[in-house]
C-alpha cells in the first residue's frame, strides 16, 4: 500500500470510531504517512469525509439488510439440488453463451470477476481465472436475485472458478 492509501485507511478508522472533527484533524496531522501521501491534511479530511458519507455511512442500513438476508437465506431455503448450466463460446473460451441458476438467466459478474490473472502478454491471456466477490452486499444481492442460499452462492462461485480457470489463451488480439 502507498502512503496515501495508508493515510486514508487510518483516517477512515478514526471516522469509524466516531471521533470528532478536531480529533480526526489531529490524527491526520500526526499520521507518519501524511508527508509521503502528496496531499495536505485538509485534502485528506475532505477525501475521507466524502468516502465516509458517500459509501460507508450510507451502507449501514444496507449492511444490516444484507446480513439478515444472508442468515435467513440459509434457514428459509430447504436442501435441494442446485442446477447450474454454464456454456462457453467455441471461439473465445472466456465468453459465456449460457449461464442459468435453477432455470433463471444469470450473470457471472453478480458473483465475481472473470479476468486474466497474469496479464503479462501483449496479446491473449496469461492465465484466465475467476476472482469471486464475497463482499456482503454483493452476496446478499445475488441471493435475493436468484433465490439461493449462502451455501448455494458458494457453490455457484466454485463452479464459476472451475469454468473460467482454463489457463493461457491467445485467441484475442
Roughly how much helix do the residues carry, as a percent range?
A: 40-55%
Number of domains: 2
Secondary structure class reads alpha+beta
Low-confidence segments: none
Quaternary arrangement of the chains shown?
A: single chain
Which strand order spans the largest sheet, edge to edge or round the barrel? 1-2-3
What is the topological layout?
Elements: H1 3-16, H2 21-30, H3 34-37, H4 41-56, H5 60-76, E1 84-88, E2 96-101, E3 104-105, E4 112-116, E5 125-132, H6 136-146, H7 150-164, E6 167-169
Antiparallel strand pairs: 1-2, 2-3, 4-5, 5-6
Task: Give a quick rundown of the structure.
The chain has about 170 residues and is of the alpha+beta class.
Features:
about 170 residues, alpha+beta, 2 domains, 6 strands
Amino acid at each position: 500500500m502507498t502512503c496515501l492509501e495508508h493515510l486514508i485507511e487510518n483516517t477512515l478508522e478514526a471516522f469509524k470510531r466516531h471521533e470528532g472533527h478536531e480529533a480526526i484533524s489531529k490524527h491526520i496531522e500526526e499520521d507518519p504517512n501524511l508527508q509521503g501521501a502528496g496531499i495536505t491534511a485538509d485534502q485528506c479530511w475532505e477525501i475521507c469525509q466524502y468516502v465516509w458519507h458517500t459509501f460507508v455511512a450510507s451502507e449501514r442500513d444496507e449492511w444490516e439488510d444484507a446480513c439478515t438476508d444472508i442468515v435467513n437465506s440459509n434457514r428459509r431455503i430447504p436442501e435441494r439440488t442446485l442446477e447450474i448450466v454454464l456454456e462457453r463460446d467455441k471461439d473465445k473460451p472466456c465468453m459465456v453463451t449460457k449461464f442459468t441458476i435453477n432455470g433463471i438467466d444469470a450473470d457471472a459478474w453478480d458473483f465475481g470477476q472473470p479476468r486474466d490473472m497474469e496479464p503479462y502478454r501483449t496479446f491473449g491471456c496469461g492465465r484466465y481465472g475467476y476472482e469471486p466477490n464475497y463482499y456482503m452486499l454483493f452476496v446478499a444481492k445475488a441471493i435475493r436475485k436468484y433465490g439461493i442460499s449462502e451455501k448455494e452462492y458458494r457453490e455457484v462461485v466454485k463452479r464459476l472458478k472451475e469454468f473460467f480457470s482454463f489457463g493461457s489463451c491467445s485467441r484475442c488480439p
